[in-house]
Structures are given as structure tokens and as C-alpha cells.
Q: What sequence folds into this?
């Protein structure tokens, strides 16, 4: 018995050595890293080391068009805002849009930055431009809807949300749009119309309890007009069916 | 045992060990995040004499005392690296495979038993290797169960000791321990006092360690049951996805249901066509029904408790069930049933294992857990960079394995796994604070209460946090989710709908002049 165990242990050790030596001799080749990816990594490392200037110059060397570019740009916007102010970030992206007017991704970023500085109309203009040239891009439509909502155009916003959902019925973009709405609600609590849009999404996802909460929040601001009337009617229906279900 | 059979046993074991070492030495660089929680605790046990995730904070961050102690013993001799633990895991997986195959051989005990026993090896390796490569404790638990099953045949007291030990590696295995101990007593194979003494001897060192340092209920269990809200259907779906061979064409629910039906049919067929099971050797056999029942019971507990089913839980259900299905099929007198067992169980698992094996030669993206575990490499990378500049800061995240491994300072767990103070802020509401109940997200109010200098989170775990007003207090650096080489291999830069890993540094601790020179204020040397 002990001889067998010793033999098995010897076989185990031999297998371990053989596998280890072979792996050592033929290491797993890691994929090649591009210059832009290297610059992005270096730039981010410099930022964590507290060296913003080095970080910025390394991030600026990430090539336009590379897969790393947008991440580099996001971080450059953070550094610009930190060193100079939010307008510096906006100016950097606006200049890029001027140089590459066909780049929808950049235009959407510009829209985001305008939205971030509460320039909702300008943000909506950028998103609308992308939605015009790329009608199938649901991100642009969702962004447009959010900016319209932020600007107080609730009817247009709901219409944009509906066309976005038609363009892309998939769950992912809808989830991103819903997340943006939650963020907007937290940032601008005084804008009660956000809760109507949230109720609209909850209704689509069948989340009745949350829909009731959002409709109540919307109506708490005593809005008027056709949408407000529709919201009241919908809330009434939901509450009644909720009561019936409880009974 | 004849010398020819012993020779073949040796050859088969050598092949199993070679495969085990090869895949472990290849994929250990992509461990599960939770595996590195054990690493940190084991390191702290050696450095500070206390098995706590954060020095001085008496929280049971690991629900596996035996595994933590084993790692601590290993790290007191070797450096705490994934490669070292991979060597240990490869050994444990190979030995576990050997003892389970040997148990099957002994259950059959006839001329064909040698080959039939080793036929289970691909099934065992396929089910267990993900946990081993991910550097989790499950292979150790299953190896102890295999040894216990061998011992139960003639030395039930030793078997009880090994099973009690296995239960302190994975608590779920207490079901099997209780079942087999009861069977031993009912069938009068051993005196109750001796079984109790054996169990106590196996458990005592680990229970003593546990009670010296921790409260009775492991904190991780309380945290997971509070934070995760997973419908039983999702758990069942995950269980069938992972307990069946991990193959792309088994993604559809219908095909998985069909395969489960075939496996049930094999069990039923095994009863109908008893074959060699009804021979004289049957008297010495183990209680197959109890082992099968224990596997099913653990699966049911996962489903009923709404657990988030992590990949390393699955072999605890899959291996006992697969072993009994395999025994039922291969011992039947119906040749058709033997063939069905090969086609429905052995061949699919062999292919699943083969996929990992092929991946180890270059196309690593075929390894099923690469995408999930590659994020851990990014965590370790970011943590090491932060450690260089902010070693005494407090870092908060909701995934603390990779980050805690690379960052030596205090790590607060927003999910509450190693930080009980987070639990009053949980569970976060679905859908406005997190998109699903399986996400262990960071509560914004908890960040406000702790006010950490650093917050690290994927977008999926920081939905509420990233849009909360607290975000204004931090400078937000965005990292790609993966290291460049991993992103290239995977062909994607997204994980769980997250495009970035956000690293937040608190603004009031960073002063920046107009030329971009940054001064880190006192508190963060």
C-alpha cells in the first residue's frame, strides 16, 4: 500500500515537473499591445502616481481612431476640468468635432459635456445631428430624449424615447438610458418631468410598483396639460388594480 | 490488484496529473476574485497572527477556515503568488480525481472496473478544473469527500473524520457528512461514539481556530444572504448551465433540459437494469442514493435560499450527482444504457475539458471564465499602483479580492462581505439602485459614511454611486475593464455592461496647481 502511494506521489511530482518545464519552455504568448494602448496605460499609471502633466501628455499621444481613444479622451476631460476648468474639456472635444465632423462618437461626447454644463439645448442639437445622420443609432436617440427632457420638452422627449425603443428594442441601450434618467433625477430633483419618463420605462418593464412611485412623484409637482392628465388616469388605473390584487 | 492493472492505474494517473498541472500552470493568472480574499487573509495570518481581511478587524471574511489555514501554511514557506497556489491546486485536483475514480473502481470490483473507474476522470476534471484554476477551495473539499468515500467502506470512523474536515472547507458538505454518518449508524458499521469521536477529531483543529478568532456565524454567509436577491429560477438556470458540460451548444434551455432528462433516464434505467449492481459485491457498496440525494439537497438549498451561484459552488452538486449517474449507467446490464452514459455524460464533459486544454495552447479566449476573471488582473494592476502612492489610505470597492491582494492598506467592502458596517445600507433597491438583485453594488450612503480616500468600481457595481452627488467629491479616472493583452485576446472591452473601471480619488486630498502639479495632502503619504 505504502509502495503504491509512493509510486503515485512520484508520478505526481514527475507530471508537475514535466508540465512546469514545458510551460516554461513554451510560455503562453500574450497578444501584442499597440502604441496607443501602451500610451493609455502609461497615462493612467501617471495619473495614479499623481503626475497629471505626464499623464496628460501620454494620453494626448493616444491616436485618434484607436480603440483606446475615447477612454483617453474621457480622462483628458477629467484632467482638463481639474487643472483649468470644465470649459477646457468642452473646448478640447469641440475642437476635435470641428476636425472630425463625421465622427458621431465625438459628437455624442460633446453633447454629454454640454449636458454636464447644463447647456441642454446645445446638447440636444449635437444628439439630434447624430440621430439625423445615423437614424439607426439608438444611443443618439436616447441621448436626444434625455436632453429634451432636461430642457423641459416632455412631449418631444417621450416621442424620442419611443423612436429609440423602436430603433433598438434590445435591453442594453434601454438600461443605459434608464440609468441616465436615474442620474438625471438625482442631479436635478426639481425637474418633476424626469419621473414621468421613469414611469414610462417602468411601465415598459412591467415594474408596476415603481411605476406608481414615479407617477406619484411626477404628479406631486401638480403639472398640467395632456400628459399630466394621462398620468393621473394611469395612476388611478394602477392603484385600482393594485387594490384589487391585494383583495 | 494485478500488476498490469496497477501499471494502467499509474499511467492513467500520470496523464490526469499532467493535464491538471498543464491547465493550472496556464490559467492561474486569471483567478476568481474571491480566491484572492483567501490569499490576503492567509498573508495577514502569517504577518499579524490574525486571520482578518483588514488587520485588527475581527471579521470572518472567509467561509473556509481549513483552506485559509492551508494557504497560510503554504505562504509561510513559499511566496504568496498565484503560481504557487496553482501548483497546490493541480495536485489536489489530480489526487481528487484519483480517489473518486478509485472509489468507482471499488464500487464495481470486477474485471472491467479499472477502465470504467478511469472513465469518470474527464467528468471529474471537467467539473472541478474551473474551481481549481480559479484557485478556490472546492477541489480540496471534493478530494476530502473522495477520500472519505474510500474510507467509509472499511474505516467509517476515518471517513467521518474526513467528511467533517471537508465540511469545514465547504459548509454545504455537512449535508453529506450527516447523511453518511447516519447511514453508518443505521447500518451498524461503527459504534455511534466512535463515529462522533472521528468527526470531532477531523473538525476540532478548524473549529478551534474558528472559535478563537470569530463569532459563530461566518460573516460572509450573512452578507451574501442579505445582499443578493436571486430568484430560484435564475439559480436553477445557472446550476444547469454550469453543472452540465460548459459547451457553447448547451446554451439553450431546451437542450439543457433534454440532457438533464437523459441523465435522469440513466438513473432510472440503472435501477431497472440492475446488472452487476445486484451481484454479491453489492453488499460492500456505498449508499449511492444518499450521495445522490446529498448532491441534490445542496442544489435545492442554493435554489431555495436565493443564492448567487458562483462557479466554484457547482462541483459540490455536480460531482456527487455525476458520479452516481455514471455508476448507474455503467453498471447496468443494458449495453444501450452504457452507450447513452458515454454519449450524454462522458463525451460532453471530455469535450468541455478539451476546450480548456486547447485554449491553453494559445487561443485563451476559449477558456469559459477568461472574460470574467480577466477583470481581476486589472484589479490587481490598479491596486498595486495605488499601493505605491496611497498605501495608508482607505480603499472602498464591492469586489475586494484582486484589490485587497495588490493594495496593502485598509480595504472596505461596499458589499459587506468583509465589512459588516456596510450591511445596514443593504439591500439596494432594484431597479433604481441596481439593475438586478445579483449585483453586489456599493451603497452611496455607505461611501458618504466611511468617506474613503479611494473608491474603485466597475459601472455595473456602481450604478447608484456613479450618479449620486457624492461623485462630485472625487476625481474620476476611467480605466479599461481589461489589461490591453486580455482585451485583445477577448476581442471586447466590456464586461457585464461595464465599459470602464472607475477609480475615484477624493478631491479634498489632492491639490492641483494651474500647471498641473499635484500635491497629495497629509493622510496619504
A:
Amino acid at each position: 500500500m505504502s509502495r503504491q502511494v509512493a509510486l503515485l506521489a512520484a508520478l505526481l511530482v514527475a507530471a508537475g515537473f514535466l508540465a512546469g518545464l514545458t510551460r516554461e519552455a513554451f510560455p503562453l504568448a500574450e497578444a501584442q499591445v499597440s502604441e496607443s494602448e501602451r500610451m493609455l496605460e502609461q497615462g493612467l499609471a501617471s495619473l495614479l502616481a499623481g503626475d497629471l502633466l505626464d499623464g496628460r501628455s501620454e494620453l494626448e499621444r493616444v491616436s485618434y481612431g484607436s480603440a483606446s481613444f475615447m477612454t483617453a479622451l474621457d480622462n483628458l476631460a477629467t484632467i482638463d476640468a481639474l487643472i483649468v476648468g470644465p470649459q477646457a474639456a468642452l473646448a478640447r472635444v469641440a475642437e476635435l468635432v470641428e476636425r472630425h465632423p463625421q465622427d458621431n462618437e465625438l459628437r455624442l461626447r460633446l453633447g454629454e459635456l454640454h449636458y454636464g454644463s447644463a447647456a441642454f439645448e446645445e446638447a440636444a442639437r449635437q444628439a439630434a445631428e447624430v440621430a439625423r445622420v445615423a437614424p439607426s443609432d439608438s444611443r443618439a436617440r436616447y441621448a436626444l430624449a434625455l436632453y429634451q427632457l432636461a430642457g423641459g420638452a416632455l412631449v418631444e422627449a417621450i416621442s424620442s424615447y419611443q423612436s429609440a425603443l423602436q430603433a433598438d428594442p434590445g435591453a442594453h441601450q434601454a438600461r443605459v438610458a434608464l440609468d441616465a434618467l436615474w442620474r438625471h433625477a438625482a442631479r436635478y430633483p426639481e425637474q418633476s418631468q424626469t419621473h414621468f419618463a421613469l414611469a414610462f420605462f417602468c411601465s415598459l418593464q412591467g415594474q408596476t410598483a415603481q411605476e406608481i412611485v414615479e407617477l406619484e412623484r411626477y404628479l406631486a409637482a401638480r403639472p398640467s396639460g395632456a400628459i399630466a392628465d394621462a398620468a393621473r388616469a394611469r395612476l388611478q388605473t394602477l392603484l385600482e388594480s393594485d387594490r384589487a390584487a391585494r383583495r | 490488484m494485478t500488476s498490469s492493472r496497477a501499471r494502467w492505474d499509474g499511467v492513467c494517473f500520470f496523464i490526469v496529473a499532467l493535464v491538471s498541472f498543464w491547465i493550472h500552470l496556464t490559467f492561474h493568472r486569471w483567478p476568481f476574485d474571491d480566491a484572492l480574499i483567501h490569499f490576503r487573509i492567509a498573508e495577514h495570518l502569517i504577518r499579524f497572527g490574525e486571520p482578518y481581511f483588514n488587520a485588527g478587524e475581527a471579521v470572518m471574511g472567509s467561509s473556509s477556515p481549513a483552506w485559509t489555514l492551508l494557504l497560510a501554511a503554504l505562504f509561510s514557506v513559499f511566496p504568496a503568488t498565484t503560481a504557487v497556489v496553482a501548483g497546490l491546486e493541480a495536485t489536489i485536483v489530480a489526487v481528487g480525481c484519483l480517489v473518486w475514480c478509485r472509489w468507482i473502481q471499488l464500487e464495481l470490483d470486477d474485471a472491467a472496473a479499472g477502465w470504467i473507474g478511469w472513465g469518470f476522470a474527464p467528468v471529474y476534471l471537467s467539473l472541478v478544473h474551473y474551481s481549481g484554476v480559479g484557485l478556490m477551495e472546492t477541489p480540496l473539499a471534493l478530494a476530502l469527500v473522495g477520500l472519505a468515500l474510500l474510507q467509509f467502506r472499511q474505516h467509517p470512523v476515518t471517513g467521518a473524520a474526513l467528511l467533517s474536515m471537508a465540511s469545514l472547507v465547504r459548509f454545504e458538505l455537512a449535508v453529506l457528512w450527516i447523511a453518511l454518518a447516519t447511514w453508518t449508524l443505521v447500518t451498524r458499521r461503527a459504534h455511534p461514539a466512535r463515529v462522533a469521536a472521528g468527526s470531532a477529531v477531523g473538525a476540532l483543529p478548524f473549529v478551534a481556530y474558528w472559535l478563537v478568532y470569530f463569532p459563530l456565524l461566518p460573516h460572509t454567509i450573512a452578507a451574501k444572504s442579505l445582499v443578493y436577491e436571486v430568484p430560484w429560477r435564475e439559480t436553477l438556470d445557472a446550476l444547469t448551465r454550469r453543472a452540465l458540460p460548459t459547451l457553447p451548444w448547451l446554451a439553450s434551455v431546451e437542450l439543457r433540459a433534454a440532457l438533464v432528462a437523459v441523465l435522469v433516464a440513466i438513473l432510472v434505467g440503472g435501477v431497472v437494469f440492475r446488472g452487476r449492481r445486484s451481484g454479491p459485491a453489492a453488499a460492500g457498496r456505498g449508499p449511492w442514493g444518499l450521495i445522490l440525494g446529498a448532491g441534490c439537497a445542496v442544489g435545492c438549498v442554493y435554489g431555495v435560499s436565493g443564492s448567487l451561484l458562483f462557479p466554484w459552488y457547482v462541483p459540490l452538486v455536480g460531482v456527487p450527482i455525476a458520479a452516481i449517474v455514471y455508476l448507474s449507467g455503467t453498471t447496468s446490464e443494458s449495453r444501450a444504457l452504457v452507450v447513452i452514459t458515454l454519449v450524454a455524460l462522458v463525451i460532453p464533459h471530455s469535450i468541455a475539458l478539451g476546450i480548456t486544454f486547447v485554449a491553453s495552447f494559445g487561443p485563451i479566449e476559449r477558456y469559459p471564465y477568461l472574460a470574467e476573471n480577466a477583470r481581476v488582473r486589472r484589479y490587481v494592476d490598479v491596486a498595486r499602483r495605488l499601493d505605491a502612492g496611497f498605501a495608508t489610505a482607505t480603499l472602498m470597492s464591492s469586489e475586494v479580492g484582486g484589490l485587497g491582494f495588490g493594495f496593502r492598506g485598509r480595504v472596505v467592502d461596499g458589499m459587506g462581505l468583509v465589512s459588516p458596517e456596510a450591511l445596514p445600507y443593504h439591500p439596494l433597491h432594484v431597479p433604481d439602485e441596481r439593475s438586478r438583485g445579483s449585483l453586489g453594488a456599493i451603497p452611496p450612503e455607505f461611501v458618504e459614511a466611511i468617506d474613503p480616500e479611494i473608491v474603485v468600481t466597475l459601472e455595473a457595481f456602481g450604478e447608484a454611486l456613479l450618479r449620486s452627488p457624492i461623485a462630485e467629491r472625487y476625481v474620476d479616472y476611467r480605466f479599461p475593464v481589461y489589461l490591453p493583452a486580455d482585451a485583445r485576446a477577448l476581442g471586447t472591452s466590456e464586461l457585464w455592461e461595464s465599459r470602464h473601471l472607475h477609480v475615484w480619488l477624493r478631491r479634498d486630498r489632492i491639490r492641483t496647481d494651474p500647471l498641473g502639479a499635484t500635491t497629495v495632502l497629509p493622510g496619504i503619504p
About this structure: The radius of gyration of chain A is 27 Å. The mean pLDDT of chain A is 87. Chain A touches chain B through 57 residues (CB under 8 Å). The CA atoms of residues 12 and 50 of chain A lie 49 Å apart.
